[in-house]
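Reviewers of the previous submission asked for a worked example of the structure-prediction workflow described in the proposal, so we include one complete record here. The input consisted solely of the amino acid sequence. No template or homolog information was supplied to the procedure at any stage.
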Amino acid sequence: MRKYTLIFLATFFAIFAAHGLYKTYPLWLLPSFDRETAREIEKISEVVGITSTYYVDSLDMDKTVTRGIQGMLESLDPHSHYFTPKEGRANDESFDGKYQGVGIQYDVIDGKINVIAVIPNAPAERVGVQSGDRIVEIDGKDVVGIATEEVPRRLKGPKGSTVKIGVERNGFDELLYFTLERDEIPIFTINTYFMPNDSTGYVWVNRFASTTADELENALINMEREGMKQLVLDLRGNGGGFLSEAVKMVAKFIPGHKRVVYTRGRRPENNKSYYTDDFGPAHTRDIPLVVLINESSASASEIVSGALQDYDRALIAGQHSFGKGLVQNEFELNDGARLR
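From that input alone, the workflow returned the following structure tokens.
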């Protein structure tokens, strides 16, 4: 009995920590934690207790808990994920620094690694990997059904090492194979900006990271000095990123206190509106604006293009966007793991 009690307490506090709310709310005070939920959690503790006692081998509790969390999140939607502490740190690299790998943005959808965007001049682009490709083999092994947190372990590696991938591509009956030599991938959110003629500016933004608004401002200032009178903002292949940077971008073209986007959730505190002046005053431009999008423009890209379209501030051109109508929050757990 004592063993079952200890197992129950361990499971109790593991779930408590996973909510990331233990510092504020006792678990039993959470609005969603009712008697039926309590019975289901008790069932989990029973399964852990029975398995720990009677399974032929000892349990790797870390592995068991990780897979249990993953299974729960996979039952919600294709975008909710659990990241181990190592994976959480690696994910931060994609928005804050640099890493050694192949240079793609991806999402695991229906068990396949969908290439959302290819970072310019990275190994993936150099060999011909394209947005929309679906990676189904890595180093000769079938990876259909791969867990999201496993992808970086397969694709990242020391600079100079190689990885071979097999991809599905629309219009091709057979898999396409590419051998990529890993390299150091600097994270730039603006691929390029230039003046194709005396009055038109062009900016290609590949993601929304912590520096995107500042990078865009720098690009606009430089092109204005060269006489820019109209702008093409290219968000094709942009898989999204930080919501705050999307709001800041919109504020560069829409003045005043205008709502950019709002969120609605099951809990009242998730019902929020974001306005153009939420992050301080911005240098607003009133020049003619065209925004380019395609099927790989997702999340924050759709917020920017949608807001500019709704306010009749820009002409949106290209293809239908990805259609990710979700704003996700990331929660850091006690051990550095993340829930998104």
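DSSP finds nine helices and 18 strands in the chain. We consider this example representative of the routine output the project will generate in years two and three.
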